[in-house]
């Protein structure tokens, strides 16, 4: 079973269109992977196990991080693919497996003797269940003295300041490319969110809300709920047939916000942090 490794950056090039098409087959579930693959991590690589036919894949994964430090892996495929990758790990590697689907957790437990921990929920909405409140969200935000704008802002630095990203070289290109909304009070950005699938170089009929943040001084005022509702309306007006988002299982305030906005929980995802002293069996 041959494994092909490809620099993640090259996935976005025309010569690797079949690989990108495969990832976009389920663009919402793979939206975190597509986002990570755009980041300039030194070891950002995809790997694929193609079958004899080019019509499908046995499995694939994304390895991202920095050499000599902690790495993250998202892995997809059948049991054989998981076993092949587990056996390829070298002792001493510090690896975190991310976005593990519920049905895949037994592969990790059987091999490493450790149960993956619940890490994220996936929420979803379609146009037919998009709620309509008594007060339109844009009107409600204006009533608070807030202004709503489309990405990108005149100053990306203002967004970086809001998000407090540690790696400007990674965040800046993403924030300059994605489509989203941000909110200002007295010309200061106090909230934002964007569609991380908008970085994909082709039209999709799905969107994935990400980068949701409200400034500390503006929380618990209903801004997140109103902005989420407004962005959902905008995304459906643009022709999206489905909108999803991922949220940390521990972020109870965000979960309440999304559920109040009408999003419905669909899936659970898990994470396994591999003890570097036990990275092989």
Describe the structure.
By secondary structure, the protein is of the alpha+beta class. It folds into two domains: 4-119 and 269-278, Aminopeptidase, CATH 3.40.630; 131-261, Aminopeptidase (3-Layer(aba) Sandwich), CATH 3.40.630.30. Helices cover 31% and strands 30% of the residues. The protein has helices at 8-11, 17-24, 31-38, 79-88, 105-112, 137-143, 156-163, 168-177, 223-237, 252-260, and strands spanning 4-7, 45-49, 59-65, 71-77, 95-101, 117-125, 147-150, 179-185, 188-195, 206-214, 242-248, 264-273. It has a twelve-stranded mixed sheet, with helices on both faces. The chain is globular and about 60 Å long.
Structure annotation, total helices:
10
CATH class of the largest domain: Alpha Beta
Please state how the strands of the largest beta sheet are arranged side by side: 1-2-3-4-5-12-6-11-10-9-8-7
Radius of gyration: 20 Å
Mean pLDDT: 87
Indicate the CATH topology of the largest domain. Aminopeptidase
**What share of residues is helical?**
25-40%
Helices and strands in order:
Elements: E1 4-7, H1 8-11, H2 17-24, H3 31-38, E2 45-49, E3 59-65, E4 71-77, H4 79-88, E5 95-101, H5 105-112, E6 117-125, H6 137-143, E7 147-150, H7 156-163, H8 168-177, E8 179-185, E9 188-195, E10 206-214, H9 223-237, E11 242-248, H10 252-260, E12 264-273
Parallel strand pairs: 4-5, 10-11
Antiparallel strand pairs: 1-2, 2-3, 3-4, 5-12, 6-11, 6-12, 7-8, 8-9, 9-10
Annotation keywords:
281 residues, alpha+beta, Aminopeptidase, 12-stranded mixed sheet, 30% strand, globular
